[in-house]
Amino acid sequence: MTIDKLALLKELEQPYDLPEAAITFYQEFGYVKLKNVLSEELLGYYGKIISDKVIELNTLTKPMEERTTYEKAFLQIMNLWRKDDEVKEFAFSKRLAKIATDLMEVKGVRMYHDQALYKEPSGGITPWHADQFYWPLSTDKTITVWIPLQTTPMNMGPLAFAEKSQSVEIGRDLEISDESEAYMATQLTPFDLNETPFELGEVSFHAGWLFHRAGANKSDEPRKVMTMIYMDKDQKITKPTNRYQEADWKTWLASKEIGTVPDSELNPVLFNY
């Protein structure tokens, strides 16, 4: 099948018809799932490019039984946009960045970083966690788009959300681990769980402090996912409070001065009103 690359680039730029109800839902529940955001053709084209780069750059090759819980959860390759120009086209999509902007009700967003998350066949669970534990950022105006590159049924381990848990301060000091899974499973019982499959072209957006997890991949195919993390374009850097934030400050924020806007070449504005 012949691919019209110009049509794909146009799709990445065109605004998505985001219902007002989706913004209201995100503001209350801390996440939203949106159907038909990206076409089958686009996901097929860029999905192959992303997968090829994951295979090329992956360094985690030890047997599954020798891995930690975190390592069993997925192969994780970050900032692919800096390693391939076509991945950059995908990661810099104004269509997706505008959705992130509108959901957070801000004036624009910057890239924090992207990451491919590939859960291999027999890959384990992704434990309960909140992403912003890792980020030395001053406000909760952060959001991640989770983009499955294939239809993702329950046996592949789709992302699951503890609804409204972005308001929970318990557990915000926990890294992704067996401990976070066990402890937060008890703390999150008052919150409804959204754990449903993803259709092809369906994506989710979740807030930085929303607790989420994913099941094991019990299928015989990899669960291929691309993500981009966005932050309010006016977000400021705060002093790191743990070793992971220290590493993020140096790696993804270019060690910019504490209290300043992260406006280095690593964190370009992707959409701005």
From TrEMBL:
Molecular function GO labels: 2-oxoglutarate-dependent dioxygenase activity; iron ion binding
- Tell me which Pfam families the record gives: PhyH
Known cofactor(s): Fe(2+)
Q: Write the protein's name.
A: SnoK
Origin species, per record, is Persicitalea jodogahamensis
Q: What is the lineage of its organism?
A: Bacteria, Pseudomonadati, Bacteroidota, Cytophagia, Cytophagales
